[in-house]
Amino acid sequence: MYRLLDCITQDHIYGLVAVAAIICVIGSVLSTHMSSRLLQWTGKRRIVQLPLAGLITGATIWSTHFIAMLSYNPGYAHGYEPVMTGVSLLVGVLGSIVANAGLAYGKSRYGAYIAGAVFGLCVAAMHYTGMSAYLLPGTIVWSVPHLVASVLLGAGCGAVSYGLIAKNLDGLAGRIWPAVAMVIAICLMHFTGMSAVEIRLDSSIPEPTMAISETAMAMLIFGVTGIILLIAMASASIEVNLEGESRTQLKHAAQHDPLTSMPNRMWLAEKVNSLAVQLTEDNTAHAAVLTMDLNLFKEVNDLHGQAIGDAVLRRIALRLSTQLGEGEYVARVGGDEFVALKLKARCIEEVLNFAERLYAAIVEPIGLDEVTLRVGASIGIATTLEDGRDAGQLLHKSDVAMYRAKSETNRPICLFDEEMGRRNRDKVQLVQDLRRALENDEFEMVYQVQNKLETLEPEGFEVLLRWNHPTRGRVSPEAFIPVAEETGLVREIGAWVLREACREAMRWDHPYSVAVNVAPQQLVQPSFLENVMDNLFETGLAPQRLELEITEASIIHDQAHALKVMHKLRALGIRIAMDDFGTGYSSLSMLQTFPFDKIKIDRSFIKDVHKNSQRAAIVRSTLLLGAALEIPVLAEGVESEDELRFLRDENCTSCQGFYFGQPLSREDMRRITFKSTGDDEENVA
What we know:
The chain is α/β, with parallel strands linked by helices. The chain has three domains: 2-238, no CATH class; 265-416, Alpha-Beta Plaits (2-Layer Sandwich), CATH 3.30.70.270; 428-591 and 661-684, Alpha-Beta Barrel (TIM Barrel), CATH 3.20.20. The strands form five sheets. It has an eight-stranded mixed beta barrel with strand order 12-13-15-16-17-18-19-20. A five-stranded mixed sheet has the order 6-7-5-10-11, with helices on both faces. It is elongated. Mean pLDDT is 84; it is low at 1-10 and 677-685.
């Protein structure tokens, strides 16, 4: 210890020691930074950066050593042997590359500490190689304990430094502590190694003549150090700039829609959070949120393809962007849904003007190379002027108002009001009640008779679903079926209806057919076909007695899948009816493509068909089409004798409707099935 203190305090020039320390600190900071980046880089980038990191680290060790050697004054002539001086630099660089490679590619738990120990040994190897280049008129005798101590100190502190690098500490600590440990490793190794030196002068040894002088050595060291440190700083600067640009590009890509280049949902969330802070801190600040949904866009995709749909979205996005003024923003948050923000909204009229500008930009005809298209829009508005100052709630309320606008075709722009909020809460409650309805056995089925027109005798029953709510009473299917379809609950409900319908039909003595509606969400289920087969197997119902009613909406989105499923159903013997014929836009092509066993004319065409010439023409055309394709036709919604007479005159196959009575309960339906076989009604019970 005394030799170490004496070496530091007595044998060195403090000014040069300070210079060595500064270079050591700068180089260590750069070295640990480059080494830490090796852990984050992969592939070719890591391979390219590894030699650079080794060069910087090796140059730091070498420069610190030789500047410290320049500060060492033994009191007599001395110099540096050129070859070993260069070899010592090579040792430092190669050793650092090996250490950094161990850090970057080491897989073991202690790999970083082993790499750090290698770094410490590299410092020692460079030091003692450099000392062998030190020429003077005498010999150097080494103190073995001090020499061993210097090697161990270098290896230990090096292990600590690389271990801290591998931990990847956050913030300033992640930069400072690994560099501090590296500085300690280099300095302790050097000064402990120098304290191991004992020079014994020998007059028989001449003064070195073919050596590098201290002046030349100083110029060489500072030149090499300056060049390498400049390279390191330039490299770090380029890396930081590239990383900053990459981060900016990644953030832009993450927060913008790739199709339209508009801000996306992530950007909107960040903007809404910023707005929430502003509204909390400044009570005078006002803003408006507008949720916009395109109308008829699904039809554009279905009729013209996704490429045309994408072109429409890009054109609309461009138009919306050109309508924005100061403090106005628009983001695309879904397939055909956009959200606009207006900051500094001073009055409702100003917000409505903004909404009308956006609406006009959307509904203007869109001329493309192939076709000219027009889409509509529904816009919901919520503002801090009337609807509260919670930014998140404003977004929700504008969405509620948008759905209200969508349901009212004569009002495309709708301001939020509390009545909408109440309806939305009712809808949420309805969804929760629907989830419990199956568990609580609240559903029941009723049966509408399907009659042959020739004899008016029953030929089957269509199963209809009813919901007996424990507090609301009987809930209309028009109220809960759309909600069930929207939430996906219709899959579970539909599976229950199908199962119960098969069980009930199996109890009938007469082999009437049973017709069950299939929702679009059911048909696309991978397990749908398997579920149908399981129900038939478990109940023993003949497949020919089961009729599945499918609408165009069930097959339009994935026709290939629907066609495959329908062929498999028909192969089992199950019949398939096209429900609500005439209400879609591609019914004729559907009949040509898909294997339907029955066409059901929608009730909207049957009402007063004997009075309305247009409806009569549509019904006649459908009946002729069915006859040509040899597909029987059933008319829905027959309510009067005149409607029935018209259908008979036009040779319709069968019909159903209130003319034959309201849908029957299970008990009433069973009376018909048993009555037709001559059994006593008492047998029903």
